[in-house]
Input
Amino acid sequence: EDKVVQSPLSLVVHEGDTVTLNCSYEVTNFRSLLWYKQEKKAPTFLFMLTSSGIEKKSGRLSSILDKKELSSILNITATQTGDSAIYLCAMGGGSNYKLTFGKGTLLTVNP
Amino acid sequence: GAVVSQHPSRVICKSGTSVKIECRSLDFQATTMFWYRQFPKQSLMLMATSNEGSKATYEQGVEKDKFLINHASLTLSTLTVTSAHPEDSSFYICSARERRTGGFQPQHFGDGTRLSIL
Output
């Protein structure tokens, strides 16, 4: 059974701090790893990673995949209160494009 | 681009009522749509995969007769919760995968429907 584990489950930081969120996975047929940000409503897409060692970057957010270690990290630098959200890691595997989600990391950024 | 619209955003109704939720891809064609359920402080749980023009594929433990899914066109899928009971109260979210060749595409999510059964 495919499995995605995220850590930590929750994190409280101050504005300006840098955070690293972790995601590890077990999957029989890896296709991609995705990161989403969920605030009050539904998740918004951040990154999709398919190749190991290639960093994807968008502003203060970046992510990288390590297929050897079966893991990925999401970095957020110079955090702002608007970064407060649940960050979800999801694994895409198999031929039917299903995603298996981790439980998420609840990030709280205090002013 | 890649906007998914879900309607309604909130439903409050009496036990025994059937509730229909619509999921539309506004600016792309979606061969496949997905329906999730999310309980408070928990992650998304996939209920079923909806393929245009064919029957939905349900995850283990999800009752097909309870949660009816129809994907009649490349831009619309509907989830009907039949004879809803209080235990069906939850946050239901749909997502759509863009119809495109060449590998895995990310799913784009609607804003969700909060269903409350009294």
